[in-house]
Inverse folding.
């Protein structure tokens, strides 16, 4: 009777060992899948960081260009106002240039707002990405 119980216990132990081994192998497979996924995410994060840096650099250049353009537009507007006093034909031309200058200024302001918004998004993205910790 004892030998039969020992044999049954050995069989159950063998079965449990097989099940545990299968669970461990399944867990290892899942961990490998997680590692592969994390490597993909890490690569995407690196690409996102590099893209953010590039966008930030481009936005800075755009902002500088917009500021320069706005200054130039203001100078052109001032010069055209001085020329308007010389003749009625020049006055008509200046009126057209002033209208275009205002449109350019409005467009420049919109570009500056867009650049500021993109810079804010870039900063938020950097903050989000800084939360990730990468293992070597």
């Amino acid at each position: 009777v004892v030998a039969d119980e020992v044999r049954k216990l050995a069989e159950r132990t063998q079965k449990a060992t097989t099940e545990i081994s299968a669970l461990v192998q399944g867990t290892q497979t899942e961990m490998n899948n997680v590692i592969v996924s994390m490597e993909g995410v890490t690569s995407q994060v690196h690409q996102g960081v590099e893209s953010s840096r590039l966008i930030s650099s481009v936005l800075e250049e755009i902002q500088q260009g917009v500021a320069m353009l706005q200054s130039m537009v203001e100078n052109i507007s001032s010069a055209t106002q001085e020329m308007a006093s010389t003749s009625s034909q020049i006055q008509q031309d200046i009126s057209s240039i002033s209208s275009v200058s205002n449109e350019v200024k409005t467009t420049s302001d919109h570009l500056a707002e867009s650049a500021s918004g993109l810079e804010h998004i870039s900063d938020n993205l950097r903050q989000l990405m800084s939360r990730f910790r990468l293992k070597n």
About this structure: Helices lie at 2-84, 88-129. The chain has two helices and no strands. The chain has a mean pLDDT of 86. The chain has one domain: 2-129.
